[in-house]
Design a protein that fits this description.
By secondary structure, the protein is mostly helical. The longest helix is centred in the N-terminal third of the chain and has 25 residues. Helix 10 packs antiparallel against helix 11. It has 24 helices and 15 strands. The protein is 44% helix and 8% strand.
């Protein structure tokens, strides 16, 4: 299906159709089309809604700043792994060492500005359709209104993840509201949860209308899933401006209330049978291949035009040189932590799709080292076209998928019932079952889940399952924060990395060298030996592979996994740097209304 072309739509902003959406931001006093005409027309209102999406795609917005940097580092993801602490402005953003003058973010076109630009465009559209559109009697206008409400919620959800308390703007900008202080995030969460309840009643289920046949448009399943996710976050832990970490004190955001809503929203999606889990690898092949039909595992994707977006560029397997798959020599900015591959169950199918030990160089796969793994969920070689340009590949950002719905439902059911119900176990089973071959189902799925008899055991297993399932998708950081586990898991990961560096403790049964050979095509690595536990250098040396084995852990009598990599996974205590600072450009332009908290 043809992707939404945001480049073409952006031109409309300057040729009259969407100008009215920008008047307040630009200080204009008129528009090429009056609001009554704009928002009463399905065609024109839809174009105005697309204007919100343009704010996602701008150079320093989601495209080049938020998607590459938010959600990294965690116990499964790291930004290029080993260069934090060197003054690198990108690494400091991910290594819990951001400062208000960070060069990547301290620009007036950065995510903070573009998110609020998108929110203002959404506010104008929502207000315009409510005022001038016959949305109560017109399903198409109702769909557009629901999409605008949901896109605003997405932008606010991501502001809350990155900055905690932020200004509350749910009406079009006026001179009186030009400068606002931050609002307690609890008030924003309550507004978003109410808004999404309304939006779910306005938009259609996947494939119920021609509009919802693509995951580039908002559908009811995504709205309900986003509401469930926000309920879990609102009821969870988080760093607060007054200091420390706590749950909300607002009775409306209690665990019981929020988890009950989350569970019901997830049940609605599951019972609708409008989404399918599918094969794990296929889910990501289709993402890279730009299959965007609705009704599969993907619920909604931030759409990028073919020449826009840096998803594979940031998260994909690195291509060190131009080759037949890409004219861009790039990839691998975000990588698995060095221990992630070894911490998976060796029989887990997700491991070898998620964690890749090679990059592409001169048209063939080459092994790197223990500190340079790549995520395999996003691949140039899975794309249906060869991307061109300086850095953009145009692959959509998959914002949420059905597996998340199932695991949220399992988590909420376990919490509300004081232990795992049959329903919660079934949702857990559905996700875990596709991670193992048929021969392993009894041991790895049935027996494993049946052994989880207490609330705590089931919860801990879910926290691990979400890591194995969503590694490399920037979901983990918010999970760890809401569970009050961020600092604990990051400390544990440093300890694991230190043991891995020396092949001690849990990693004492790993060989130093990796042995391999190439397939007949001369580009594909096969028969890789030395990565699995229990494989030895003694056996590897007898295999007769003609390729020179790769020193994996020790080279020239030095640890390949350097101290910098281990020590600089985080610079400051992650629990005291759960949020980015508001960057200086926006503090200085706030007329004294904004300030930084959280120790900045």
């Amino acid at each position: 299906m043809k992707k939404i072309n945001l480049y073409i739509l952006s031109l409309l902003l300057f040729t009259g159709i969407l100008i009215s959406c920008n008047d307040m931001l630009d200080g204009g006093t008129g528009s090429s089309i009056d609001d009554a005409t704009l928002y009463s027309s399905e065609i024109l209102a839809e174009q105005a809604m697309y204007g919100i999406l343009i704010s996602f795609a701008e150079t320093n917005s989601y495209r080049g700043r938020y998607i590459p940097y938010y959600g990294i580092n965690t116990d499964s993801e790291t930004y290029s792994g080993y260069n934090q602490g060197t003054g690198d402005r990108r690494s400091r953003l991910t290594g819990y060492d951001a400062t208000p003058d960070n060069q990547e973010m301290n620009v007036n076109t950065g995510p903070w500005a573009k998110m609020y630009e998108g929110i203002e465009r959404a506010n104008l559209c929502i207000d315009g359709i409510r005022t001038h559109g016959d949305w109560e009697n017109n399903e198409a206008l109702a769909q557009i209104l629901g999409e605008c409400i949901t896109l605003r919620a997405v932008l606010y959800a991501d502001l809350l993840k990155a900055w905690g308390d932020v200004p509350y703007r749910f009406e079009p900008l006026t001179t009186e509201t030009m400068y606002l202080a931050k609002t307690d995030r609890d008030e924003i969460y309550k507004k978003l949860i109410d808004d999404l309840e309304e939006a779910a009643g306005l938009v259609a289920w996947p494939n119920a209308t021609s509009t919802t046949t693509t995951v580039e448009r908002i559908n009811k399943a995504f709205v309900k899933a986003l509401r469930a996710r926000l309920c879990l976050a609102a009821a969870g832990y988080g760093q607060r401006p007054e200091g420390g970490r706590r749950r909300s004190n607002d009775a409306d955001l209690s665990v019981d209330k929020m988890y009950a809503i989350a569970l019901q929203e997830c049940r609605d999606i599951i019972n609708s049978q409008t989404c399918t889990l599918g094969d794990f690898e296929t889910t990501f092949k289709e993402l890279s291949g730009e299959v965007n039909t609705a009704g599969r595992e993907s619920l909604w994707e931030i759409p990028f035009a073919p020449g826009r977006g840096r998803v594979v560029y940031t998260y994909g397997i690195k291509h060190n040189t131009v080759d037949k798959y890409t004219s861009i020599a790039q990839g691998g900015g975000v990588r698995p932590t060095a221990n992630l591959f070894y911490d998976y169950d060796s029989k887990d199918i997700r491991r070898d799709i998620t964690c890749i030990p090679y990059y592409w160089n001169n048209g063939k796969q080459e092994l790197r080292s223990v500190k340079e793994w790549y995520f395999g969920k996003y691949r140039y070689e899975w794309m249906s076209r060869v991307p061109s340009g300086d850095s953009d590949d145009g692959v959509n950002w998959q914002y949420m998928r059905y597996a998340d719905v199932l695991l949220m439902a399992a988590e909420a059911g376990n919490e509300l019932n004081g232990g795992p119900t049959d329903e919660a176990k079934e949702y857990f089973r559905m996700v875990r079952a596709r991670a193992f071959h048929a021969a392993d189902q009894t041991e790895k799925v049935t027996d494993y889940i049946n052994s989880l008899t207490t609330k705590d055991d089931f919860f801990y297993a879910l926290t691990e399952e979400r890591k194995w399932e969503f590694a490399g998708e920037a979901v983990r950081k918010q999970d760890l924060i809401r569970w009050n586990m961020l600092g604990e898991k990051m400390k544990e990961t440093k300890e694991r990395l230190s043991d891995l560096q020396k092949r001690e403790g849990e990693y004492s049964d790993l060989a130093n060298k990796v042995y391999y050979e190439y397939a007949e095509d001369g580009e594909t690595l096969i028969n890789i030996y030395g990565l699995e536990r229990g494989e030895t250098d003694e056996t590897g040396a007898t295999l007769g592979y003609t390729a020179e084995p790769k020193n994996w852990f020790i080279s020239s009598n030095e640890y390949v996994l350097s101290d910098d990599y281990v020590d600089n996974l985080y610079i400051n205590d992650p629990d005291e740097r759960q949020f980015w600072p508001i960057f200086a450009t926006f503090i200085n332009a706030s007329n004294g209304m904004l300030k930084n908290d959280y120790g900045y």
